[in-house]
Structure formats: C-alpha cells, structure tokens
C-alpha cells in the first residue's frame, strides 16, 4: 500500500509543461489512440515534437503501452471510486488510468510524484471541479487499495479482466485453441516485445554482414524463428549505419516466414499483392536476380504507401528488381492478365490480433464484425490473384492474426472454390512445428515470443495433374 499523501484540500501549485512532462505527453498520446490513432505512430510523433530527456521518453512510452495493455484491469480497479462514470470526460478517465498504472506497475516511480503531477494536469487541462474529482479518486484509491481480481466469480470474465482482452476475443481463442493455450497466449501478450532485424543477403553473406552490426554497437542472438532473423539484445538498430545502408531492416521474426514459405527463385516474376510498407517486398527482392529476369511487383491502395515501398527498396538496395504500383489487389486479374507470375504473396489485411504485444489497442478497436468483413476481403483478393499465377506456381496466403475465421477458414474456402489449387505444406528454414497436423503454419504469440502469424501455401495444378 502506498504511503498516505496530501489531503484532498491541498493544492498543487507546481505547473507541468505539456512539452517536457512525460505524463502530460502520455495522456495526449492515449487520447489520440482512443480516437483511432495507432499507438506506435502517435507515440513516435509526440516524442518527436516533445522536449523529453531519454529517461522521460522511456517513462512516457512505458505509461502509454502499459495503460493500453492493462486498460480493463485499471478500469476494474477504478470502478469503486467513480460513482457516475458516464459523466467523466474521456481525457479525465485516461488521466486516472495513467495514475493507477504507475501506482500498481511502476515500483520505482514515487507515488507522491504520480499524485502531484496527475492532479496538476487535471487542474491545467480542466477546471477546479475536475481537479477536486481527480484528487478525491486518487486519495480514495490510496486509502482503500485495489480490488482483488480473484474476486471476479465468472472464470471467463476474470480471465478477460486480468489480461485486458475483451470477452469476444477470449471466447474466439477458446474455441480455436482451448482453455490452457488461451491462458498461455493471454499471459504472453502484455510482456515486452522483442526487437528483431532481418539481414539482407542481397548485400553480402551473413558472416560478412555480422561484424558491421558489432561495429554499430548491436548485440544479438540468432532467431529461432527465421533463417535471416536476429533478435536484438542490446542497441537500437534504427539509424545505425547497417540500417541506413540496407544491411538490415527492422522486422518481426514471424513476419519473415511468409517469404520463407514462398521460396522465390532467382529468375521468378513475383507479385506482392498487399505490400506496404515493403518489408516482405524487399525480402523477396533480395532473393531475386534481375539479370535472370527476377522481379517483384508490389501493390498498395494508397500513393503514400507506394512511396514507402519504394523508399524501403532504395534503402535495401534492391530497387532495380522492384516495381511498386498503386492498385487494389482485387483488380489484379484485369491489370496483369492470366499466368503473369511464378509466385504470389498475399499478406492480407486482417484483424491483427497476433500483434497485441506491439499494438495493444487493437484488442479494443476491432470487433468480430470487422473480422467477418475482413474475411470477405481476404477471399476476394485471393480470388482476384488466382488467375495471374502460372501453372505449378506457388501462392502464399498470410495474416498477422490468430483467428480461425481469417486463417484456416479462408484457406479451406479458397481451395473449395478453386479446384485448380491444392494446399501444400508450409516449409520454413528452421522447420517450425514440423509435426503439426495441418499443411498451414500458425505461430501464436506465446510459442516463440514473436508476433502471432498464419502462413498457408497453395500450388496451382497443371491441367494434367
């Protein structure tokens, strides 16, 4: 229990600066996320604009991700102290969440500092009534402590609240993987994400590249997930000479697997149907030889994302084998005609529930209805690219979600609708889950500490197959 602090009648006179105070910045970021912004983009933009020390930027980051990861738990703890929740302004609720998160999860942050600055932010952003309300809630919480999650009687509600994952997602996970695996997944997603990079074989052999990473102050271990992956243990890859020169790119280990399954050959014509920002495009391109005709066509709906693909291709020094086009992948057949490509990758738009470690807000922003709608888009893209694949060509379908309806069900429906395609076993460099019972590969967030991912491969039959 925290030590007792100032009485509710005490005023905090110290002003906090919106540009230099990490708690103030964190509240603003969380407000933006609540309105539909992405946590990583909102945080990065705010940190670029703010004038925070490295330590304060770290605190701000920890508060933002911590509140998102534990939001439902924090609201459970807040509930006894808020008599009329409907009347609480959204930013005030966010402010209170940040305070409780610090009190419960950040042992090294003095409770007095949390109280003082939270109350001052309430006063500066609101009015005297809001200051009094926030002060009252914080002191009541300090006096009475927080409710025990074990007192939640319903097991599923307790699981949902403990790990801050809305009930529909918990129910879907249970249907797919059962109770024990669901608990393991939920327990893993609020842990810090590992940072990983992919080596670029277009610029040299592995042993020639690694000393340059050492010279840049990076320390790593080889990835257990991907053949070209490294898990970074020390240092920050972005902005280092190896990153700027294209020797490495930042990419999750699981996200490298679809291209491993695709296994492009040097002279292949490849379509990357949903390509932005270009991580998988450049991974494909690195395995192609333009002198043998190897080329990858990368599509995205939006012009600014096409520009991102092109910028990544330049940085990775593979622009000579990449063409980025602004095109809806569902129009691929009209654009390219029949049998234009040897290999096709459809890394489809999805609910993203495999990314909860890196983008914790997804759990609140997406719904089951969204997932169902995405399933229709996924099937439409697969239907559209199917005619453009050559006979005996390989089509890889992947998502960064762990929902059966966007994964297994899509793969099954596609094969059922296209008799000229057959499922083939997904193969990876490290032979992941080699004894699985399905031809597709599902990586869950708790399996290796990487993102959740689904990878499925199809072969287009010859007429005489």
UniProtKB/TrEMBL annotation:
Cytoplasm found in the keyword field: yes
SUPFAM superfamilies: NusB-like, S-adenosyl-L-methionine-dependent methyltransferases
Subcellular location: Cytoplasm
One BP term from GO: regulation of DNA-templated transcription
CDD domains linked: AdoMet_MTases (cd02440)
Keyword Ribonucleoprotein included in the entry's annotation: no
Catalytic residues, chain numbering: 400 (nucleophile)
GO terms of molecular function: RNA binding; rRNA methyltransferase activity
Domain SAM-dependent MTase RsmB/NOP-type, chain residue ranges per copy: 185-461
Cellular component per GO, a single term: cytoplasm
Reactions accelerated catalytically: cytidine(967) in 16S rRNA + S-adenosyl-L-methionine = 5-methylcytidine(967) in 16S rRNA + S-adenosyl-L-homocysteine + H(+)
E.C. numbers: 2.1.1.176
Database matches in NCBIfam families: PRK14902.1, rsmB
Record's protein name: 16S rRNA (cytosine(967)-C(5))-methyltransferase
